[in-house]
């Protein structure tokens, strides 16, 4: 059998095609606020309450009429007339306009004195000083953070409308077994869709992992038809290359159309972009590092265009400890370890031949060598994307070319 060479499209062109070809699905769901962390607001959220509802004490002490404390000093304490004991957060009684802190008072024979005058409003949080009914809490398109939940609940919001996008994940391959099972000779435990669900779920997407589909075109067709019905975006893991058991492109073409088969990126070149019933389908390579690259460089940007953004990743400048050889016709993504060296950082490419799962564990950064760049020399300063915590090392060999 002669292996078919992919007519690979530039990565930037494929990303733009995805954004333009597939508008954001228009679906919202209503969730209890306590379960909405990580989801994206569908519309602005406004306060149902005025907080505080009335003037409240900002300190423990006594509510007083401020004018009656005029002239108070250490040597000239003033008797408090009809003081009302309040704790922080208590409502200020009508007719009172300030709070004297408890530490600024002394008691004698059931009466209270202060040696510190207070001004109107001192040590008081006025009604509505935090938020007023109808004020904006969160804008539309905001990813709800854990601390946002406290504010929403405090301001009378029990449920919130959030955008929803459903992503289906279909694993394929007769050699695969599920988690907890022992694979036979030539077998493997399916993990690509679990990684994809974790990554895509961080954007606020709702991910569904389907059962493993064996290498049978009829079974794959049935699974794809269900996945398209149920979801807004469908990812098919493995079967995207040109082997005798790689059916993904043919099934997508039969049910819809293949827009791209082959993206000029390494790893991940065999990736497929298709359209079925107007919805995007992405065929992932089976090799774990290539699958991760396709998820990060194709699926995540599409979700971001739909308003489902991944968590911001940190970037830093580092010197390469070793040359990087890259094909100028491709966007290449090189796994690195990053170490602290004095006031800077050293990025070391992982050696070729490292097992894919251990390579992903050991790597804590990725270098994007953009198409047209070609190779990068040892010692060059580069911009890297952190995928983990860099390693602190007190003693490092100097990078070649440094003084």
Automatic annotation (TrEMBL):
Under what name is this protein listed?
A: Molybdopterin molybdenumtransferase MoeA
- One Pfam family linked to the record: MoCF_biosynth
Q: InterPro entries given for it?
A: MoaB/Mog-like_dom_sf, MoaB/Mog_dom, MoeA-like, MoeA_C_domain_IV, MoeA_C_domain_IV_sf, MoeA_linker/N, MoeA_linker/N_sf
Keyword Metal-binding on entry: no
Under which pathway is this protein filed?
A: Cofactor biosynthesis; molybdopterin biosynthesis
Q: Which UniProt keywords apply?
A: Molybdenum cofactor biosynthesis
Q: Which residues form the MoaB/Mog domain?
A: 168-305
Q: Does the keyword Protein biosynthesis apply?
A: no
């Amino acid at each position: 059998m002669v292996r078919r060479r992919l007519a690979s499209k530039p990565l930037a062109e494929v990303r733009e095609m995805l954004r333009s070809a597939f508008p954001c699905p228009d679906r919202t769901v209503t969730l209890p606020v306590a379960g909405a962390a990580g989801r994206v607001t569908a519309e602005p959220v406004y306060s149902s309450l005025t907080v505080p509802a009335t003037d409240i004490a900002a300190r423990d002490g006594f509510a007083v009429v401020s004018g009656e404390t005029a002239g108070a000093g250490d040597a000239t304490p003033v008797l408090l007339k009809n003081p009302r004991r309040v704790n922080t957060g208590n409502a200020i009684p009508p007719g009172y306009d300030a709070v004297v802190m408890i530490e600024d008072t002394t008691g004698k024979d059931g009466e209270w004195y202060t040696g510190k005058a207070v001004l109107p409003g001192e040590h008081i949080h006025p009604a509505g000083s935090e938020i007023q009914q109808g004020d904006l809490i969160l804008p539309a398109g905001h990813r709800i953070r854990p601390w946002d939940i406290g504010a929403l609940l405090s301001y009378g919001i029990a449920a919130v409308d959030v955008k929803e996008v459903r992503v289906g994940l279909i694993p394929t391959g007769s050699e695969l077994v599920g988690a907890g099972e022992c694979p036979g000779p030539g077998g493997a435990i399916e993990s690509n869709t679990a990684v994809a669900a974790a990554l895509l779920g961080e954007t606020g997407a709702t991910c569904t992992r389907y059962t493993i589909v064996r290498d049978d075109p009829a079974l794959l067709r049935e699974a794809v038809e269900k996945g398209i019905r149920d979801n807004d975006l469908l990812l098919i893991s493995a079967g995207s290359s040109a082997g005798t058991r790689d059916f993904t492109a043919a099934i997508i073409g039969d049910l819809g159309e293949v827009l791209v088969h082959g993206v000029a990126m390494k790893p991940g070149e065999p990736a497929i972009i298709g359209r079925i019933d107007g919805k995007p389908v992405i065929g992932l390579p089976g090799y774990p590092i290539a699958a991760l690259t396709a998820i990060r460089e194709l699926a995540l940007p599409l979700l971001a265009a739909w308003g489902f953004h991944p968590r911001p990743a940190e970037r830093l400048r580092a010197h390469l400890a070793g040359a990087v050889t890259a094909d100028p016709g491709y966007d290449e993504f090189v796994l690195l370890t990053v170490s602290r060296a004095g006031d800077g950082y050293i990025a070391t490419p992982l050696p070729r031949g490292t097992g894919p799962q251990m390579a992903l564990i050991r790597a804590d950064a990725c270098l994007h060598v953009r198409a047209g760049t070609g190779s990068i020399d040892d010692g060059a300063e580069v911009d890297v994307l952190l995928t983990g915590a860099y390693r602190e090392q007190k003693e490092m060999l100097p990078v070649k070319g440094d003084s």
